[in-house]
Amino acid sequence: MRYGQSFQRFAINCNDIEYTHKTLKDKGVEVTDIIIRGEAQAKYFLFKDIDENLIEVTWSIWDEDMA
Q1: Hey, how many other C-beta atoms are within 10 angstroms of the C-beta on 22?
Q2: pLDDT tens track, the chain, 67 positions
Q3: Is 52 left (phi over 0), alpha (psi -120 to 50) or beta?
Q4: 20 torsion bin: left (phi>0), alpha (psi -120 to 50), beta (else)
Q5: Contacts of 55 (CB under 8 A, 6+ apart)
Q6: DSSP reduced 3-state for 34
């Protein structure tokens, strides 16, 4: 808990965030909407694992240079 609310403990970098978001949602996983930062330079969403832990899935234009 942080400031009385749950928060994510770690993040997973993802090359195709829209596909991952849709796949998890289609399988019944509770996911947030994709949040876009900057001029679509970064995107992320959160989902809960089977133990109700929040996990962040991220993508940014800068990650493509690391592939």
Answers
A1: 13
A2: 567 766 667 888 999 999 999 999 999 999 999 999 988 899 999 998 888 888 999 998 887 655 5
A3: left
A4: alpha
A5: 8, 9, 10, 11, 12, 46, 47, 48, 49
A6: coil
Q: What is the pLDDT of residue 54?
A: 86
Which position has the token pair 């770690």? 10
Q: Reduce the DSSP state of residue 1 to 3 states and report it.
A: coil
Structure tokens at 41: 């330079």
Structural contact between residues 58 and 32, judged by C-beta atoms closer than 8 angstroms: no
User: Bridge partners of 46?
Assistant: 56
Asked if 42 and 61 count as a contact pair (C-beta separation under 8 A), the reply is: yes
Whether 48 contacts 30, CB under 8 Å:
yes
